[in-house]
User: What shape does this take?
Amino acid sequence: MIIQKKIKFYGLKDLDSIEYIKNKLTDEEIFDIKVIANVFPFRTNNYVIEELINWDNIPNDPIFQLTFMQREMLDDNQFAEMANLIRSNVPKDEINRVAKKIRSGLNPHPSGQMTVNVPIMDNIAVAGIQHKYKETALIFPSAGQTCHAYCTFCFRWAQFIGDHDLKFATDESNRFQQYLKSHSEISDVLFTGGDPMVMSLKKLETYLLPLLQPEFDHIKNIRIGTKSLSYWPYRFVTDKDAYGILNLFEKIMNAGKHLAFMAHVNHGKELETEVLHSAVRRLRNVGVKIRTQSPIIKHINDSADVWASMWRKQVNLGMIPYYMFIERETGAKEYFEIPLPRTFEIYRDAFKQVSGLQRTARGPLMSASPGKVVIEGVTRVNGEKVFVLNMLQARNPDWVKRPFFAKYDETSTWLEQLTPAFGEQKFFYEDELDKTLKEKSYEHEKARHS
Ligand SMILES: *Cc1c(COP(=O)(O)O)cnc(C)c1O
Ligand code: SF4
Assistant: This one.
């Protein structure tokens, strides 16, 4: 029996009033969460608290780690500075000023997302769209730039802190539609955020229905990047527009489009509730394909068994494992990151214990400046220990599936820390990438000043 639930959000100001927390954490521990939640966005909800977190297993419970801030997310100096301000009750402005300073040192927009991936049309940047890979455009609907809860490790955390300079979203004019119309090479649009499924049915319709017009015939696949199945499955079951949403999806598919959920699922524990099972069944019944992706994150899913069991559950529910990402270099990455060799080992150990149906998650991969770079393996060539790398997507489509080699490095966590193997000076794509990036920044400069 699924009992209808109304969403109740909990943020920084509610930390003292969540019974579960008061019963399980000391005042000191709650204070630590508050300190961090003044820097990073904090939000959780009644489903996560009541049905997902195992309160007998905190702080280690992966779902607790997933939405509740942890003391180690800031280094000691940053933490002390913030903690002192809060203890001495300084005005909110002062706290915000320091929070802003700390954030600006945490690489809020990794891999040049704000500039080089944003297309320019008629000498003006197109708001709320990123177009990096030829076939696929990302769209950030302005009404979808929050989530039902926030992940502590979120690589788009800068979207949620109310700092306009760091925000990224479509504007009133919806120029992005104009852009899509005039780019017939775009076969896929991916609505993302935030989480587009926080939008009301009405809002969703304003974004999705126009794509059924003939001028968008080249757009075959509509994807929705969402964590709603994990954070608020009631969206598709008992929310008052749940049926409307399923009808909308059905309509889109009847019009000949492929509709895919790119579901963000970090741990098998998100896949156990009855309401989640019901949500998945309903989506599948109208024909939505659910593909799953997740970064690999220390304290949350840094074990092969966790991945293997998650993939098994996903396939069993009719979901298709799609990508295993490596956490980007942003925010509290030092708390969450895992060295590349260990990351690869976890992927391989998970892969080898499941059947072919569950081996569809490609990775582990870095969404880096040149493209989606996957670690294919670790091996020795002429005595030199190397990482074998490969691009699954690239700024220049011709860079894909050309294996390249980096020196093995036990502690590296990201592409930019790697150096080419065999004494080479550069990776094969670097000159061309530098040139492209320079051209793009120049175009953006020009657009800003005109
Ligand atoms: C991952 C990604 C996509 C989608 O890539 P697929 O391989 O088609 O899933 C599109 N744009 C950007 C910027 C991405 O990082
Ligand atoms: S659901 Fe996605 S966008 Fe939202 S907080 Fe989590 S990682 Fe970030």
About this structure: The mean pLDDT is 94. Residues 9-104 form one domain. The chain has 15 helices and 15 strands.
